[in-house]
Structures are given as C-alpha cells and as structure tokens.
Amino acid sequence: MSRSERSPLLLAGLLATAGVTHFVAPRQYDAMVPRALPGSARAWTYASGAAELALAAGVALPRTRRKAARAAAAFFVGVLPANVQMAVDWRDRPAPLRNAALARLPLQVPLVLWARGVAKNAEERS
Fold it and tell me: Average pLDDT over the chain, rounded to whole?
C-alpha cells in the first residue's frame, strides 16, 4: 500500500481514536472546553467526539474522503480554542504537563495540512 493510500486511513484512525476517547475518558476533554461556550462542557465533549467519529468514517471511505478531509481540516482549526484554553489553564501545572499543553498548539498546523493533503489527493484521484 502506497503512502498516499495509507495517509487517509491513518488520518481516519487518528480521528476515530480521538473520537472514542471523548466517550471513554470525557473528563479530560471537559476541562478543555472554553467556558465561553453555552451549555455543559460534557455536551461539547460528546458532540466533538461524535464529530470526530463521523469525520473518521468519511475520510476512510473513498467516496466521501474529499469532503470529509476538508471538514476535518476545518475541525482542526475549530478546536484550536480548546487547545488555547488548555494551555492557559495548565500554565501553573508542573513543567511536563504545561509543556504538553503548549505543544498541542503548533500541532494543529500539521493536522490541518495533513487533512488538506488527503482532500487534495482525493480530488486528484476522482
């Protein structure tokens, strides 16, 4: 299997794994939900987990891959405020935890670029 064939499946796996963890261990995600959002943090945690699972399914299927990968790129941009919230909230935690929270911020860039690349490759194949 070529790299271009593996890439969407790896992205789908990442999204699926993240989506499942929103339901298995929701408390860690609840803490990242920006307080400015209306409603309960748990509702946002479950909604974002469901969105990740839907995106994973869409990216895994060649027929829906292009649109789902574009949506995944937008999703990665959309969750940036949660990562910023986490970095702010964890600024007084021990250095390894604080550094992990800060490291999540630039990680969004390669995720967005990865999803865009999957979408572009899907366009070229159709």
Answer: 92
Look at residue 48 and give its three-state secondary structure. Answer: helix
CA diameter of the chain: 49
What distance in Å separates the CA atoms of residue 16 and residue 103, rounded to the nearest whole number?
A: 21
**Entry pTM:** 0.88
> What is the H or E stretch that residue 124 is in?
helix 95-125
The predicted pLDDT at position 1 comes to 66
User: What does the pLDDT look like over 7-45, one tens digit per residue?
Assistant: 999 999 999 999 999 999 999 888 888 888 899 999 999
- pLDDT bin (cut points 50, 70, 90) of residue 97 is confident
Which stretches does DSSP call E strand in 2-124?
none
Dihedral pair phi/psi, residue 67, rounded to 5°: -65, -40
**b/e per residue, 3-41, with b = 16+ CB within 10 A?**
eeeebbeebbebbbebbeebeeebeebbebbeeeeeeeb
Question: Coil, strand, or helix at residue 65?
Answer: helix
Q: Domain-by-domain residue ranges, the chain?
A: 3-125
